[in-house]
Amino acid sequence: MNCEVPEPESRPQKKPFVYAGVGILLILIAGYVVFGDYIQEQRTLSEVDSLWEQASQLRDEGNFDGALEVYNSVFSLISSKDFPLEYGMNHYYRGKTYEEIASFDMVNASSHLQNSIYAYDYSLKFITEKEYPAEYFRVHYGLGDAYLKLYASRGDASELDTAISYYGSVLCYYSIAVDPIYFASINNKLGNAWRKKGNIENNVTYLQMSLSSYEESLRVFREDVYPFEYAGVQNNLGNLYLEMASYRNEKSNVESAITSFNNALRVYTINSRPIEYATVQNNLGNAWFELSEIENKESNVEKAVMAYNEALKVFTISLFQVEHDGVIHNIARAYKSL
After folding, report:
1. What pLDDT tens digit does each residue of the chain (338 aa) get?
2. Which parts of the chain span the membrane according to its record (predicted)?
């Protein structure tokens, strides 16, 4: 009896190849969809970046209303669900714009700063510390600036405390190792805030904290690397030393103030930064006058008047009437003291 070899079951053997072909096709389709989504996402981000650049230029030109219109148009391109970082940062940029408007429209500064704070706060609904720590603390920095300016506008001490709190939180992230420029800038602002708090509360401890913050700032803002930032901190230091002289070590603090102002004037010249030059010269005149109240009356008054006259080279009555009148008052006070 002949045994027949069973005919191979060919159909079941072909099924894996069919399934594999279908699987590959599905993968290709899914890949095409994902790649298409990626391309569209990149196009959207590119368009957003372009609009942000346009708005930034408008802000530089002082066209703040135009900048706000551009920022508002960004919201038509992105959602908070698909682009949480960009959505939040768009609110942040709106906050910066309102903060800048406040510097030009002093009459309504308080209202503009409140709009700025609202925009900053709203941005933090989408920019979380866990997901986006750098941007999160960048917004906190903006909040510190806005509250410090709001204090200057309204004089509410609680807003000064809020500014100090935000600056302190930012320094928990922006260490000198993470971002030295941010570290130095924040410490300079924090020094200004502690100075104001020390003066309104007549508390030398807060002034000492201000001094520590300025010194931290100068770890980065060295004269040979960041000359103008260095000069700005030195001017702040000079004013701080004059204020500290009212509480203790009067002569040494006034002398430290004179040194700081002269450090600033190594950078600020009448040609490079005329307004800053005149401001520091006026401050230097104040320091020499304070020293004249302690010793060498005539010679120190003479040095004070020389500094005031340097300030008047810039603060002319036609261009800077308020500043001009202030310097003239200082000169009269100095001569009257003789």
Report:
1. 444 434 444 444 545 555 555 556 555 454 554 545 667 888 888 999 999 999 999 999 999 999 999 999 999 999 999 999 999 999 999 999 999 999 999 899 999 999 999 999 999 999 999 999 999 999 999 999 999 999 999 999 999 999 999 999 999 999 999 999 999 999 999 999 999 999 999 999 999 999 999 999 999 999 999 999 999 999 999 999 999 999 989 999 999 999 999 999 999 999 999 999 999 999 999 999 999 999 999 999 999 999 999 999 999 999 999 999 999 999 999 999 99
2. 17-35
Q: Is 169 exposed, middle or buried, given 0-12, 13-18 or 19+ CB atoms closer than 10 A? A: middle
Residue 209 has, within 13 A of its CA and on its CB side, a CA count of: 16
Residue range 49-173 forms a domain whose CATH class is mainly alpha
What is the enclosing helix (H) or strand (E) of 201?
none
184, 216 Cβ separation under 8 angstroms:
yes
Q: Is 308 exposed, middle or buried (0-12, 13-18, 19+ CB in 10 A)?
A: buried
CA-to-CA dists, residue 65 to 75, 120, 312, angstroms: 16, 18, 36
What is the distance between the alpha carbons of residues 337 and 331, in angstroms, rounded to a whole number? 10
Radius of gyration of the CA atoms of the chain, in A: 31
Distance CA 83, CA 45 (A): 9
- Count H helices and E strands in the chain, helices first: 13, 0
pTM (two decimals): 0.84
Distance CA 198, CA 213 (A): 13
The span from the CA of 116 to the CA of 60, in Å, is 17
* Angle subtended at Cα 183 by Cα 178 and Cα 189, rounded to the nearest 5 degrees: 160
